[in-house]
């Protein structure tokens, strides 16, 4: 894997990023450290976490993932300097009062969250510090429509950027990014950064996979023209695109019960749990097999080979899953197969948007 730069930053990362949100919930610490060791040995130098993790979020596991990563760094001298570390400050609480009580993303919220993450991660600096979701009330996590009547923003984007700039000047953050953003949000963060000499966002972390290609509805042009990189998350559609639920739906007695979508009702209540998403996944998985590929190979190659994607975030629970995801690197999708993928999308659109 050849490393790439994120946006206009000096961050040079592998085109596959290891997401860690399962660490501390589905993955115990010893196994998490083994996964991290293997990923690093196989050329992955990019790790993504968040103060909110593990997932599904609970008060009992808040910050657990960062703590596990911090102990990994502490037990392996020199490793921290070999990786690009990304973390995220949570947006407004969205029903998670253990993160914060307020409805905004104030300067105190951002600084306090960053400093707590640094302590848990046992590091002096976070290479890429991202806003996990906007402070603005925008459609995300399965919502479809913007409703201006629900707007309750309390902290202007300029003030958020100015606070991030303080963290950069203090040496606690190197570069900044966004997550779950809209075209307006990306443009406004970049415009204000350039106008006021504030940190320019290097990347946006949004969902992108065969079941959710909403990135292609304006965000791809926005980020291409502004030179902001996409970090694609959920490339396997919360395991729907692995084929494990092709015979039995996640709630059926015969379905594997180790995946998040089968194990947690809160996940099934979101976009990945829609019957339409499962039906579309089965169509794509069948198409992969018809072309001599596994569903995992086709779904990941769709992201790995896509000009829109800078780095694809994979999340795993085992060494076997990690190896399968990494082994898919180099898989090529023919123009004929890509045309058939587009035909399914034209028919079924983006059921997990």
Automatic annotation (TrEMBL):
Residues 15-344 form the NADP-dependent oxidoreductase domain. GO terms for molecular function: oxidoreductase activity. Gene3D superfamilies: NADP-dependent oxidoreductase domain (3.20.20.100). The keyword Oxidoreductase applies. Keywords: Oxidoreductase. The keyword Nucleotidyltransferase does not apply. PANTHER family: NAD(P)-LINKED OXIDOREDUCTASE SUPERFAMILY PROTEIN, NADH-SPECIFIC METHYLGLYOXAL REDUCTASE-RELATED. This is Predicted oxidoreductase. It comes from Paenacidovorax caeni.
């Amino acid at each position: 894997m050849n490393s790439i730069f994120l946006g206009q930053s000096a961050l040079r990362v592998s085109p596959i990023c290891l997401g860690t949100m399962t660490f501390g919930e589905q993955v115990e610490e010893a196994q998490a450290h083994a996964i991290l060791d293997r990923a690093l040995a196989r050329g992955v130098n990019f790790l993504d976490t968040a103060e909110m993790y593990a997932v599904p979020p609970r008060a009992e596991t808040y910050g657990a993932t960062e703590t596990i990563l911090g102990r990994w760094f502490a037990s392996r001298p020199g490793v921290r300097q070999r990786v690009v570390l990304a973390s995220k400050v949570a947006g407004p609480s969205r029903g998670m009062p253990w993160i914060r009580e307020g409805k905004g993303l104030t300067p105190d919220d951002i600084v306090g969250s960053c400093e707590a993450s640094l302590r848990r991660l046992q590091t002096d600096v976070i290479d890429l510090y991202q806003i996990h979701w906007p402070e603005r009330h925008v459609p995300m996590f399965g919502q479809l429509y913007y409703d201006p009547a629900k707007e309750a923003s309390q902290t202007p984007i300029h003030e958020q950027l100015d606070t991030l700039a303080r963290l950069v000047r203090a040496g606690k953050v190197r570069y900044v990014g966004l997550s779950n953003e809209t075209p307006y949000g990306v443009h406004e963060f970049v415009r204000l950064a350039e106008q006021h000499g504030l940190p320019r966002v290097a990347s946006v972390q949004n969902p992108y996979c065969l079941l959710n290609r909403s990135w292609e509805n304006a965000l791809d042009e926005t980020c291409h023209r502004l030179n902001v990189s996409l970090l694609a998350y959920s490339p396997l559609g919360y395991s729907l695109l692995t084929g494990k639920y092709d015979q039995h739906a996640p709630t059926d007695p015969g379905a594997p019960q180790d995946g998040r979508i089968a194990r947690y009702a809160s996940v099934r209540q979101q976009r990945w749990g829609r019957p339409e998403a499962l039906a579309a996944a089965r169509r794509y998985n069948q198409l992969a097999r018809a072309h001599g590929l596994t569903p995992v190979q086709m779904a990941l190659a769709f992201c790995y080979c896509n000009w829109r994607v800078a780095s694809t975030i994979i999340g795993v629970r085992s060494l076997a899953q990690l190896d399968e995801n990494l082994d898919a690197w180099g898989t090529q999708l023919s123009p004929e197969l890509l045309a058939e993928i587009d035909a399914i999308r034209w028919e079924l659109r983006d059921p997990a948007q």
